[in-house]
Amino acid sequence: MCEPTFFDVSYSINPWMDPSRPTSTERGLAQWKTLHDLLVELGHTVELVEPVAGLPDMVYSANGATVVDGRALVARFRYEQRADESPAYLDWFRVRGWDARQAEYVNEGEGDFLYAGDVVLAGTGFRSEPKARDEIREFFGKPVLGLTLADERYYHLDTALAVLDDNEIMYNPEAFSPRSRALLAERFPDAILADASDAAVFGLNAVSDGLHVIIPQQANRLPDQLREHGFVPIGIDLTELLKGGGGAKCCTLELRARH
Q: Which UniProt keywords apply (predicted)?
Protein backbone atom coordinates (compact mmCIF):
# COMPACT_ATOMS: atom_id res chain seq x y z
CA MET A 1 0.00 0.00 0.00
CA CYS A 2 1.03 3.63 -0.42
CA GLU A 3 -0.15 6.32 1.98
CA PRO A 4 -1.99 9.09 0.09
CA THR A 5 0.18 11.87 1.50
CA PHE A 6 -0.10 13.80 -1.76
CA PHE A 7 -3.59 12.67 -2.79
CA ASP A 8 -5.37 15.18 -5.01
CA VAL A 9 -7.38 15.26 -8.22
CA SER A 10 -5.53 17.84 -10.30
CA TYR A 11 -6.03 16.20 -13.71
CA SER A 12 -8.46 13.78 -15.35
CA ILE A 13 -7.41 10.45 -16.88
CA ASN A 14 -10.58 8.49 -16.13
CA PRO A 15 -14.32 9.31 -16.03
CA TRP A 16 -14.36 9.52 -12.23
CA MET A 17 -11.79 12.32 -12.00
CA ASP A 18 -13.09 15.89 -11.98
CA PRO A 19 -10.46 18.50 -11.00
CA SER A 20 -13.21 21.08 -10.41
CA ARG A 21 -14.68 18.96 -7.63
CA PRO A 22 -13.26 19.69 -4.14
CA THR A 23 -10.91 17.01 -2.82
CA SER A 24 -9.77 16.52 0.77
CA THR A 25 -6.31 14.99 1.23
CA GLU A 26 -7.03 14.73 4.96
CA ARG A 27 -10.23 12.77 4.37
CA GLY A 28 -8.49 10.55 1.83
CA LEU A 29 -5.76 9.80 4.37
CA ALA A 30 -8.30 8.91 7.04
CA GLN A 31 -10.21 6.57 4.74
CA TRP A 32 -7.00 4.93 3.54
CA LYS A 33 -5.90 4.38 7.15
CA THR A 34 -9.20 2.68 7.91
CA LEU A 35 -8.50 0.22 5.08
CA HIS A 36 -4.88 -0.24 6.16
CA ASP A 37 -5.81 -0.90 9.79
CA LEU A 38 -8.59 -3.29 8.81
CA LEU A 39 -6.17 -5.41 6.77
CA VAL A 40 -3.80 -5.54 9.74
CA GLU A 41 -6.66 -6.48 12.10
CA LEU A 42 -7.57 -9.34 9.75
CA GLY A 43 -4.04 -10.72 10.22
CA HIS A 44 -2.35 -9.55 7.05
CA THR A 45 1.13 -8.05 6.78
CA VAL A 46 1.05 -4.68 5.00
CA GLU A 47 4.20 -3.38 3.31
CA LEU A 48 4.36 0.33 2.54
CA VAL A 49 5.72 2.08 -0.54
CA GLU A 50 7.04 5.61 0.08
CA PRO A 51 4.77 8.21 -1.55
CA VAL A 52 6.41 10.62 -3.99
CA ALA A 53 5.49 14.31 -4.25
CA GLY A 54 3.84 15.11 -7.57
CA LEU A 55 2.43 11.59 -7.97
CA PRO A 56 -1.03 11.81 -6.37
CA ASP A 57 -2.20 8.50 -7.85
CA MET A 58 0.49 6.39 -6.14
CA VAL A 59 -2.11 5.56 -3.51
CA TYR A 60 -3.61 3.21 -6.11
CA SER A 61 -0.80 0.73 -5.58
CA ALA A 62 -2.61 -2.17 -7.28
CA ASN A 63 -1.68 -0.52 -10.57
CA GLY A 64 2.03 -0.62 -9.73
CA ALA A 65 2.75 -4.24 -10.64
CA THR A 66 1.52 -7.80 -10.96
CA VAL A 67 3.19 -10.18 -8.50
CA VAL A 68 3.04 -13.97 -8.81
CA ASP A 69 5.38 -16.66 -7.41
CA GLY A 70 7.92 -14.15 -6.14
CA ARG A 71 8.22 -12.32 -9.46
CA ALA A 72 7.02 -8.78 -10.12
CA LEU A 73 6.20 -7.31 -13.52
CA VAL A 74 6.12 -3.58 -12.82
CA ALA A 75 3.67 -1.36 -14.65
CA ARG A 76 4.22 0.73 -17.74
CA PHE A 77 1.48 3.36 -17.49
CA ARG A 78 -0.52 4.67 -20.43
CA TYR A 79 -0.65 8.27 -19.22
CA GLU A 80 2.38 10.47 -18.58
CA GLN A 81 0.88 11.71 -15.30
CA ARG A 82 1.57 8.29 -13.78
CA ALA A 83 4.73 7.31 -15.68
CA ASP A 84 7.11 8.21 -12.85
CA GLU A 85 5.39 5.78 -10.50
CA SER A 86 7.03 2.86 -12.30
CA PRO A 87 10.63 3.59 -11.19
CA ALA A 88 9.44 4.03 -7.60
CA TYR A 89 7.76 0.62 -7.59
CA LEU A 90 10.62 -1.06 -9.47
CA ASP A 91 13.15 0.26 -6.94
CA TRP A 92 10.98 -0.91 -4.05
CA PHE A 93 10.91 -4.47 -5.37
CA ARG A 94 14.57 -4.65 -6.30
CA VAL A 95 15.81 -3.26 -2.99
CA ARG A 96 13.89 -6.04 -1.24
CA GLY A 97 15.28 -8.78 -3.44
CA TRP A 98 12.28 -9.50 -5.62
CA ASP A 99 12.80 -10.74 -9.18
CA ALA A 100 11.38 -7.65 -10.88
CA ARG A 101 11.42 -5.81 -14.19
CA GLN A 102 9.30 -3.21 -15.90
CA ALA A 103 6.80 -4.29 -18.52
CA GLU A 104 7.70 -3.67 -22.17
CA TYR A 105 4.11 -2.91 -23.20
CA VAL A 106 1.50 -0.70 -21.55
CA ASN A 107 0.49 -2.75 -18.54
CA GLU A 108 -1.25 -1.29 -15.50
CA GLY A 109 -0.53 -4.06 -13.03
CA GLU A 110 -3.31 -5.57 -10.97
CA GLY A 111 -5.57 -2.91 -12.32
CA ASP A 112 -5.89 -5.13 -15.40
CA PHE A 113 -4.26 -8.45 -14.49
CA LEU A 114 -5.89 -10.49 -11.73
CA TYR A 115 -4.62 -13.91 -10.65
CA ALA A 116 -7.43 -16.42 -10.17
CA GLY A 117 -6.14 -19.79 -9.01
CA ASP A 118 -4.31 -21.10 -12.06
CA VAL A 119 -5.04 -18.39 -14.62
CA VAL A 120 -4.38 -14.68 -15.07
CA LEU A 121 -7.51 -12.76 -16.04
CA ALA A 122 -6.29 -10.04 -18.40
CA GLY A 123 -8.34 -6.94 -19.08
CA THR A 124 -7.80 -4.70 -22.08
CA GLY A 125 -9.82 -2.07 -23.87
CA PHE A 126 -8.89 1.19 -22.17
CA ARG A 127 -5.47 0.98 -20.49
CA SER A 128 -3.29 -2.14 -20.87
CA GLU A 129 -2.33 -3.16 -24.40
CA PRO A 130 -3.40 -6.51 -25.89
CA LYS A 131 0.31 -7.37 -26.35
CA ALA A 132 0.67 -7.16 -22.57
CA ARG A 133 -1.28 -10.43 -22.34
CA ASP A 134 1.51 -12.33 -24.11
CA GLU A 135 4.13 -10.63 -21.96
CA ILE A 136 2.28 -11.68 -18.80
CA ARG A 137 1.99 -15.25 -20.09
CA GLU A 138 5.69 -15.47 -20.89
CA PHE A 139 6.92 -13.72 -17.72
CA PHE A 140 4.91 -15.77 -15.25
CA GLY A 141 4.47 -18.98 -17.24
CA LYS A 142 0.74 -18.95 -16.49
CA PRO A 143 -2.26 -19.30 -18.80
CA VAL A 144 -4.06 -16.05 -19.58
CA LEU A 145 -7.74 -15.44 -20.21
CA GLY A 146 -8.17 -12.28 -22.27
CA LEU A 147 -11.16 -10.09 -21.44
CA THR A 148 -12.25 -6.92 -23.21
CA LEU A 149 -13.71 -4.03 -21.23
CA ALA A 150 -16.46 -2.12 -23.02
CA ASP A 151 -17.61 0.61 -20.61
CA GLU A 152 -15.22 3.52 -20.02
CA ARG A 153 -16.45 3.95 -16.44
CA TYR A 154 -14.88 0.57 -15.71
CA TYR A 155 -11.57 1.32 -17.32
CA HIS A 156 -9.55 -1.25 -15.37
CA LEU A 157 -10.45 -4.90 -14.89
CA ASP A 158 -10.40 -4.50 -11.11
CA THR A 159 -13.25 -1.99 -11.31
CA ALA A 160 -15.46 -4.54 -13.08
CA LEU A 161 -14.39 -7.87 -11.55
CA ALA A 162 -13.06 -9.14 -8.22
CA VAL A 163 -11.35 -12.45 -7.51
CA LEU A 164 -12.82 -13.89 -4.30
CA ASP A 165 -10.77 -17.09 -4.05
CA ASP A 166 -9.07 -19.56 -6.39
CA ASN A 167 -12.38 -20.59 -7.92
CA GLU A 168 -14.87 -17.78 -7.41
CA ILE A 169 -15.25 -14.27 -8.76
CA MET A 170 -17.85 -11.52 -8.85
CA TYR A 171 -18.27 -9.20 -11.81
CA ASN A 172 -20.44 -6.74 -13.71
CA PRO A 173 -21.46 -8.33 -17.03
CA GLU A 174 -22.35 -4.94 -18.52
CA ALA A 175 -18.72 -3.83 -18.30
CA PHE A 176 -17.55 -6.48 -20.79
CA SER A 177 -17.86 -7.19 -24.49
CA PRO A 178 -20.34 -9.94 -25.48
CA ARG A 179 -17.50 -12.39 -26.18
CA SER A 180 -15.90 -11.73 -22.81
CA ARG A 181 -19.24 -12.20 -21.05
CA ALA A 182 -19.49 -15.60 -22.70
CA LEU A 183 -15.95 -16.54 -21.62
CA LEU A 184 -16.64 -15.54 -18.03
CA ALA A 185 -19.96 -17.36 -17.93
CA GLU A 186 -18.32 -20.53 -19.24
CA ARG A 187 -15.36 -20.50 -16.86
CA PHE A 188 -17.18 -19.16 -13.77
CA PRO A 189 -20.79 -20.38 -14.07
CA ASP A 190 -21.50 -19.76 -10.37
CA ALA A 191 -20.01 -16.26 -10.21
CA ILE A 192 -21.71 -13.46 -8.30
CA LEU A 193 -23.19 -10.96 -10.75
CA ALA A 194 -23.29 -7.36 -9.54
CA ASP A 195 -26.08 -5.04 -10.55
CA ALA A 196 -25.51 -1.60 -12.04
CA SER A 197 -26.02 0.27 -8.77
CA ASP A 198 -23.41 -1.75 -6.85
CA ALA A 199 -20.97 -1.53 -9.75
CA ALA A 200 -21.39 2.25 -9.83
CA VAL A 201 -20.20 2.63 -6.22
CA PHE A 202 -17.12 0.49 -7.07
CA GLY A 203 -18.56 -2.53 -5.28
CA LEU A 204 -16.37 -4.77 -7.44
CA ASN A 205 -13.16 -2.95 -6.55
CA ALA A 206 -12.92 -5.29 -3.59
CA VAL A 207 -10.19 -6.98 -1.56
CA SER A 208 -10.72 -10.64 -0.66
CA ASP A 209 -8.51 -12.91 1.43
CA GLY A 210 -10.61 -15.94 0.56
CA LEU A 211 -13.05 -15.34 3.40
CA HIS A 212 -13.34 -11.65 4.24
CA VAL A 213 -14.30 -9.35 1.37
CA ILE A 214 -13.78 -5.62 1.84
CA ILE A 215 -16.31 -3.65 -0.21
CA PRO A 216 -17.80 -0.13 -0.17
CA GLN A 217 -20.40 0.32 2.54
CA GLN A 218 -22.57 1.94 -0.14
CA ALA A 219 -23.07 -1.42 -1.92
CA ASN A 220 -26.63 -2.70 -1.43
CA ARG A 221 -27.04 -6.23 -2.83
CA LEU A 222 -23.47 -7.50 -2.81
CA PRO A 223 -23.23 -8.13 0.97
CA ASP A 224 -26.11 -10.61 0.90
CA GLN A 225 -24.83 -12.22 -2.29
CA LEU A 226 -21.40 -12.68 -0.71
CA ARG A 227 -22.88 -14.22 2.44
CA GLU A 228 -24.86 -16.68 0.34
CA HIS A 229 -21.56 -17.83 -1.19
CA GLY A 230 -19.90 -18.27 2.20
CA PHE A 231 -17.93 -15.03 2.38
CA VAL A 232 -17.87 -12.38 5.10
CA PRO A 233 -18.43 -8.90 3.61
CA ILE A 234 -16.98 -5.88 5.41
CA GLY A 235 -18.16 -2.46 4.29
CA ILE A 236 -15.99 0.64 4.54
CA ASP A 237 -16.21 4.20 3.23
CA LEU A 238 -13.68 5.12 0.54
CA THR A 239 -15.74 7.76 -1.25
CA GLU A 240 -12.95 10.37 -1.14
CA LEU A 241 -10.52 8.04 -2.91
CA LEU A 242 -13.23 7.16 -5.43
CA LYS A 243 -12.90 10.75 -6.67
CA GLY A 244 -9.62 9.60 -8.19
CA GLY A 245 -11.20 6.49 -9.65
CA GLY A 246 -10.16 3.94 -7.04
CA GLY A 247 -11.41 1.86 -4.14
CA ALA A 248 -10.21 -0.85 -1.77
CA LYS A 249 -8.60 -3.03 -4.44
CA CYS A 250 -6.97 -0.11 -6.23
CA CYS A 251 -5.27 0.76 -2.94
CA THR A 252 -3.99 -2.78 -2.34
CA LEU A 253 -1.37 -4.72 -4.32
CA GLU A 254 -1.13 -8.40 -3.40
CA LEU A 255 2.42 -9.71 -2.93
CA ARG A 256 2.41 -13.40 -3.86
CA ALA A 257 5.68 -14.95 -2.72
CA ARG A 258 7.21 -18.08 -4.26
CA HIS A 259 5.96 -21.25 -2.59
A: Transferase
